[in-house]
Design a protein that fits this description.
This protein has helices spanning 52-61, 67-75, 81-142, 152-171; strands spanning 2-11, 14-23, 34-40, 47-50, 64-65. It is an alpha+beta fold and 172 residues long. The chain has a five-stranded mixed sheet with strand order 4-3-2-1-5.
Amino acid sequence: MLAISLMRMGAKGKPFYRLVVKEKRSKRDGAYIENVGTYDPMTDPAEVNLKHDRIQYWIGVGAQPTETVKSLIKNNPVQTEEEKAAALKARAEKKEADRLAREEAKRAEAERLEAERVAAEKAAADAAEAESAAEEAEGAEAAPVEGGEPETGAEEATVDAAPAEEAAKEGD
């Protein structure tokens, strides 16, 4: 009995498939009778190339397509060369539009982050300015009034420091 199934090709982690007609009991990647198409799931969207006339011939002869192959045949109908070219053009345009949209999103995100950074710097500068203004106001309130008496604590500190310095010099 014949089957139309996928034959895995490609490297590890990068699958690529051939649609082949083969004996149903043969191994997945074993000998086959005819290659009737390819399937590349790694592209976006997946790329499927089928030889519809040969697939119909083999189905007519009695080959049974697997579930996956049935799905590929159903979702990829027969197309003329013009339709294939239009589909490729549409795919390329969609890919370019997606790329431009991603770039625009990155640019908008960068602008938003820059605006947030500038706002944060401005807020920090305003806070620092307000803090220095508050310190200046506190310094003006704590300054002694001209013509008034000096603080007694400062006078006592100088008197106590002088005998300690003289005693230190005598000890040398």
